[in-house]
Design goal:
2 copies of one chain form a homodimer. The model of chain A is unreliable at 1-17 (pLDDT under 50). In chain A, helix 2 (17-39) packs across helix 5 (67-86), helix 2 crosses helix 7 and helix 3 crosses helix 4. Chain A has 2 domains: 1-66, Homeodomain-like (Arc Repressor Mutant, subunit A, Orthogonal Bundle); 87-214, Orthogonal Bundle (Tetracycline Repressor, domain 2). The longest helix of chain A has 24 residues, at 133-156. Chain A has 10 helices and no strands. Chain A is elongated. Chain A is an all-alpha fold. The interface between A and B is large, with 42 and 43 residues. Chain B binds a DNA duplex through helix 2, helix 3 and helix 4.
Amino acid sequence: MDRTQGRTARRSAPRGTYPVGDERRARILDTAVDHFAQWGFHASSLARIAKDVGITQGGLLHHFRSKEDLLVSVLRHSDEQDSERFFSPDPRSAAEAFESLIELARYNSQRPGRTRMFNMLAAEAGEHGHPAHEYFIHRYRTIIDKNTETLRLAVERGELKPGIDYAGISAESIAVMDGLQLQWALAPDTFDMTGRLRTYLDRLMRQISADGSGLPGRT
Amino acid sequence: MDRTQGRTARRSAPRGTYPVGDERRARILDTAVDHFAQWGFHASSLARIAKDVGITQGGLLHHFRSKEDLLVSVLRHSDEQDSERFFSPDPRSAAEAFESLIELARYNSQRPGRTRMFNMLAAEAGEHGHPAHEYFIHRYRTIIDKNTETLRLAVERGELKPGIDYAGISAESIAVMDGLQLQWALAPDTFDMTGRLRTYLDRLMRQISADGSGLPGRT
DNA sequence: GTCTATATCTAGATAGAC
DNA sequence: GTCTATCTAGATATAGAC
């Protein structure tokens, strides 16, 4: 919220100081991603994060008033980027929605820090009272509901078979992604996460599509 | 290792003190499961664990020489119990192996502490240098390899279709379990984890079984 | 087997100098 | 915007009394 106000203020008073602050904030956020990925929220340390950024703890707390504020900012920042990149235009078909998931997995395999962070925080947030508990509950519900709605529309268009529990299918697809990311974080070089998700979604598509076809193959 | 020696000593000198120690150790292990579930390894505190057990930190460190020793003991203890209970007799068919997985999921839904602990530690252990990093790499490789071998034998017996990537299928099944457990830990009352795993495995079975049948239905 | 005491270190947050 | 200083609290681990 402070950040938003800062940006608004910048527009009305376009002096040269704010952009520097924005860049510093961005570097703090990036560094925090790696720390939350390694330590989770509880065991992360503002002093260590600040040291990695190259400032002191006091300096960091000028930009984020508390550790919890930093966590919330990191999560919101991360998810905003992704929803713009992967989920902003409504998919025109179920196959296209599945392709978006595969694209997201591919992207995640190129940013291990962020991927590990979500593995870590999603697990940690299972506890009532964790500062991101409600956030993650809402996050999963939103993603799964949106996915379910996409599949429901595909049924109406005759792409997918009717009479299937598509809410269950949606939750299952996300579970496969998360589970594969967990294995991948442990041993990234031992298997192709993107390929394995594609195999799963292709088999799924064959079973639920009205004409029995899978995803369009790549080359 | 100290524990093993202690048990050996008990046999040769059967005085009445050791069983008390064993019971105390068991209570420490149980309590530690809940703490590792909530805090992970790094953010857990020996003093808080000891307080929950009803002893002091010094007392706890008599039984486990360090925090890391406690972690390793908890993991080994947990996995020993489960492999005896679910994976000890070789399954006679792929369907039976899948049923074991479903049974495990059902059991896990009845012990949220242990389930959350494995969610948490598996994510935390993704980092190189985590005291359970190698443990979890080995754990996944063992589980998936064993699963793969079971499916391979089923192919030889003509139960399952040949020409399918059964190593991939095995990793995928474990991913579904883990992903569902992650969602379940966040909101246990909103969905039936066991039922959802059964739905997935039944659909999978229909697609890979030689005669196209799924899992035997439950009444 | 458990206690107390202690050493050493690190945590998050606040206040105020520059 | 970043620093230093400071406060309170809590961490792991060791040593030795009982």
